[in-house]
Specification:
heterodimer, A: 126 residues, mainly beta, globular, B: six-stranded mixed beta sheet
């Protein structure tokens, strides 16, 4: 049974960066993708991007391209999400989730998120 | 503004049946992409409730069902229980955005 354990809460200054980790236990880390989803206070879920550790491919939501970097270390079964140029609107809970693929083609793979981490609170404040 | 549109709130009495809609467009649900549903209990991470339009993961009661038609999908909860009080999110793929998209969430209140 896969479990995702995320790093602890962070408090950051505007214009700085934050790097959140997500360590997987159980299962074979390289055999699935990991998505990052954030939730601002009182708001809904927002997909940020995903990494497929097996091939080292990262995909990003258009909104975050250029500001987010998602990586994975297969040797430690850990995925990372780094968000730069932080602003107050980035204050949110950041979740990692296991992506299970279910179809697609050579250009795109479709996923649903079936295992979630407990979330990491990131507060951006001067 | 979420790509998928859900009503902000619904409510029902214990034992009743409620439905939650999720409306998309020709670049997501209308293009034939599957819809998944998540339940988020207060103060916790989301949990997968329905995947690929109609399928329940093991452990999800059959009181939860879902369907998809055209550019919309819907989640139905029958025999409403107090423990169902949560926020529900739909999710699909959007070809214009080349990625996963969520609805804005629907808060279910059990009266």
């Amino acid at each position: 049974q896969v479990q995702l354990v995320q790093s602890g809460a962070e408090v950051k200054k505007p214009e700085s960066s934050v790097k959140v980790s997500c360590k997987a236990s159980g299962g074979t880390f390289g055999s699935y993708s990991i998505s990052w989803v954030r939730q601002a206070p009182g708001q809904g879920l927002e997909w940020m991007g995903r990494i497929t550790p097996m091939i080292g491919l990262a995909q990003y939501a258009h909104k975050f391209q250029g500001r987010v970097t998602i990586t994975a270390d297969r040797s430690t079964s850990t995925a990372y999400m780094e968000l730069s140029s932080l602003r107050s609107e980035d204050t949110a809970i950041y979740y990692c989730a296991r992506d299970t693929p279910y179809g697609g083609n050579s250009l795109v793979v479709f996923y649903y998120m079936d295992v979630w981490g407990k979330g990491t609170t990131v507060t951006v404040s001067s | 503004q979420s790509v998928l549109t859900q009503p902000p709130s619904v409510s029902g009495a214990p034992g009743q049946r409620v439905t939650i809609s999720c409306t998309g467009s020709s670049s997501n649900i209308g293009a034939g992409y599957d819809v998944h549903w998540y339940q988020q209990l207060p103060g916790t991470a989301p949990n997968l409730l329905i995947y690929q339009n109609t399928n329940r993961p093991s452990g999800v009661p059959d009181r939860f069902s879902a369907s998809k038609s055209g550019t919309s999908a819907s989640l139905a909860i029958s025999g409403l229980q107090a423990e169902d009080e949560a926020t529900y999110y739909c999710q699909s793929y959007d070809t214009s955005l080349s990625g996963s998209v969520f609805g804005g969430g629907t808060k279910l209140t059990v009266l």
